[in-house]
Specification:
By secondary structure, the protein is mainly beta. Helix content is 9%, strand content 43%. The chain contains one helix and three strands; from the N terminus they run βαββ. The radius of gyration is 17 Å and the shape is elongated.
């Protein structure tokens, strides 16, 4: 199983401005998370929007061990 993370910049829409403390056209960061099962099938997609000046992204990367036959 794994998760793909995509972060992109966009401008706030009028709908965004109605629920966030920003004006339409101001910068936002869009985060998309794509969750895959152990077979690689996409099982869920999640989106979030954050204020560009108040967003922090943190991640932890680890290396998976590989099995060797023989």
């Amino acid at each position: 199983a794994y998760v793909e993370i995509t972060v992109s910049a966009l401008r706030a829409t009028a709908a965004d401005a109605a629920v966030l403390p920003i004006g339409a056209g101001e910068p936002l960061l869009l985060t998309q998370l794509r969750y895959h099962d152990t077979g690689g099938r996409l099982v869920e997609i999640a989106y979030s929007r954050g204020l560009a000046g108040a967003t922090r992204f943190s991640t932890r990367l680890t290396a998976a061990s590989r099995r060797r036959d023989g």
